[in-house]
Amino acid sequence: MEKINANFLGELFRKMFLSKEMMFIVDRHLDFKFIPKEEVGYKFILKDAKEQFHQYDKIPSLGVISQKYSDMESVQLAVDQIKESQIVDDEVLLNQLESYIRDSEFLLLNKAIVDLYGEGKKEEAMRLSKEESTRILEFSLRAQSEMFLGVFSDFDKCRKDWAEKTEQQPPVAFGIDALDDKYGGIDVGDTELWLARSGVGKALTLDTRIITPDGYMRMGDVKVGDIISTIHGEPQIITGVYPQGVRNCYEVTLTDGSVVRCDRDHLWTVLDRYHEDRVVTLTLGEIMKKGLLRCGAHGGQVYYKNGKKYYGTKSRPRWRLPLQEDAGFVKKDVLIDPYTLGVMLGDGSCTEGTMGITIADDDIEIVNRLKFPEKIEVRYVNRFFYGIRTNGSEHSMRYYLEKYGLFNHTAIDKFIPDDYKFNDRETRLEILRGILDTDGYVNKNGLIEMGSISKRLMDDVRFIAQSLGCLCRVMRRKPSFYTDNGRRVQTRDHYRMVIVEPKGMSLFHLKRKADLASRPQKLHCCYRAIKSIKKVENAGMQCITVSSPDKLFMVEDFVPTHNSTVLRWRGLTSALTGADVLHIQCEEAKEKIHMKYSQMWTFKTYTDLKEDNFTQDELDDLHKTLKDIESYANDIKIYSFKKFGDATILDVRTICLEYKKLVGKFPRILIIDSFNLIRTGIPSFDNDPRPKYKFQECGKRLKNMCEEFGMSCVTAIQTGDVPFEVWNDEEKVIDRSYAEGDRTVVQPFSWVFSINQTLEEVKHKTCRIFKDKVRDYENIDPVFKVATNYNAGRFYDRKRTLEEFYDLKITHTHGRGRKRIRSNSNEQKGRVM
What we know:
Layout: H1 6-16, H2 20-29, H3 40-56, H4 62-68, H5 73-84, H6 90-118, H7 122-137, H8 141-144, H9 155-168, H10 177-183, E1 191-196, E2 204-205, E3 209-212, E4 215-218, E5 227-229, E6 235-254, E7 259-262, E8 267-272, E9 278-283, H11 284-290, E10 293-294, E11 302-305, E12 308-311, E13 316-317, E14 319-321, H12 338-347, E15 348-350, E16 355-358, H13 364-369, E17 377-382, E18 385-389, H14 397-403, H15 418-421, H16 425-439, E19 440-442, E20 448-452, H17 455-467, E21 471-477, E22 480-482, E23 488-490, E24 494-500, H18 511-517, E25 528-546, E26 553-555, E27 559-561, H19 566-576, E28 581-585, H20 590-602, H21 606-610, H22 616-632, E29 636-640, E30 647-648, H23 649-663, E31 669-673, E32 678-679, H24 683-686, H25 692-709, E33 712-718, H26 724-727, E34 751-756, H27 759-764, E35 766-774, E36 783-787, H28 798-805, E37 808-813, E38 817-822
Parallel strand pairs: 1-33, 1-34, 28-29, 28-31, 30-32, 31-33
Antiparallel strand pairs: 2-25, 3-4, 5-6, 6-7, 6-25, 8-9, 8-14, 10-13, 11-12, 14-25, 15-16, 16-18, 17-18, 19-20, 20-24, 21-24, 22-23, 26-27, 34-35, 35-36, 37-38
Helix pairs in contact: 1-5, 3-5, 6-7, 12-16
């Protein structure tokens, strides 16, 4: 008999452990006699796989078989070959297996005929040859494996299957009235895809620097999974990166001189001084439209009323920005004590001949606070100068300064090393205190100032102060003097910085300065506002989404900027109708997703949940609700992958199998967030620069998995670059042509919907849902409106939707335009069409 190729066996067995249909074919047609004796490991695997399949009527477990024969080398070798084999198309495997079985049958028939001739049974041999040859030639895996279905002949059988299937596993509601009223819900084996933009307006220029726990990162260099800082100094993950191409660019200048370049649709979280510092989130275009100034009285001029003299107030910036609490950089080891290095940068000399520090007699406490490496110490030399001596240490101070590139740097080119700038809060605070104790000044009003001729040092001090939550403003001037003959001489640029620290923060160890800076009457006006906005040259831009609940991250100069889902709503409503739900998260920790679900059913805010702000009555009501839920609903199990964006469709399958072990059955609804982060596990697909092939393959396997496990899957994918004139136009909708990859991504899915929101709809908390694909149903009214309630973490506000849109029909044609029609019929209130 011709030997079966080991590579083919590996590919066949791998597909057998992935597809119930392939397992059925192998069980019926692959006999042990077809596997050569050299591949004895495959014989043991086939034997156990068939036993599992007969017992459980499910795909067998390769891991269980591997564990059973852990001490058998031939089986372990076969298992490794199966795992390393590529996943081949079913049709290719069927053709090859059928050809091999047919050839093997002919070889066995030939052997039988030779034996009959040897026994002198010629007529019997001829009869056997004719009968068996006909049988072998007519052999068809597809025909004999019931892969054909008769429209008429199998009607009664299928009709019974339909009824049994619907009775055993009825459709699960969408949780959105317009869909449930029309289609009833999602059936077993269905897959549902939601298309959504990354959010409205978050585009920053590619050269914008984003703050991370380790320093800066260019917007153009970020990728999904990178860690950046929240405005609270905590790490967060970039969950999406969306290039926007070249767009109109605006330069936003703040009152402290900070500059941010973004597009007109970029979201800003600001405090509106017209409305008692109410926190609002607006696009840059909306801010420009509302105006940048809060009007003053009488233009700031003196005026008289009823014979009395009054002073008018000047216009002031209207939009304030929240300051961050701390940059949240990670702690790093440093060679020189940060306060000591700060003192040397402030009033020290780092050159060959004069290595020391200048300290006035009244400030001797500074000297007492200095800490040097090894045995290095300071010794009084004369007047106000203290020299730095090695004192028998292995290394001199020069050695440590050279490590940071500071040796022989004078006042004009001093700087703060990156190891100190991008370090934990205590390190940054101490080096700033060292600089300000020596080179800082506090005026009679408690305002902190600092002067230097080193622009780099001034920028570094400003960076550290801002990273601690301080407000800074730097001014430059060109000092000059006149010679005896009247000639004017320009000197080097001089920089002066004013620092306003948050209330409760002390930037000094030196007592006399600390006392001045902490005067009770001091105003801690620690805020900055938008001063001006101007159009600049167009630039390449990019959006990102982040994992923090407030969706804020920090860009250069520590300006906080903004970053918004239907999947959790689908999960919650499915569970509340009695369906078992498994939520697999690919981009956030399960604890965070749990909190977002908790927001939805408790109607508590993120802050309330985080700070445990519950009264006893609220807790009693919630526990009563939980008991009620136990009687009519099922739980939602959340699983998150530890490796961000590194999960394969096989990993998803494994989690579903583990869920079955935990609950005793497969989930009825599988939520995957997000689909674009799932890989196939096949390098040729995953490494292809065109993502559509990866998405298509993952979609096909997901569909097959749902059919096999008797579940439905709901997932979402971000769109590509949707032009502003499309998404911000109520007459247009986002359809499959904007799907990441291309329009063919939606092919394996049964249902496809897109979420459409203009800036005006965001303001009014509404959105339009476009039914791009509705399985085999007629799609008469493809667009409908719903109300949202993102403040409560809910995609769908049912009460408002029923009140406002129950009789609103929207017709739509080819994604280009649509019109509203108010229904005149007496439809039942609550029906959304």
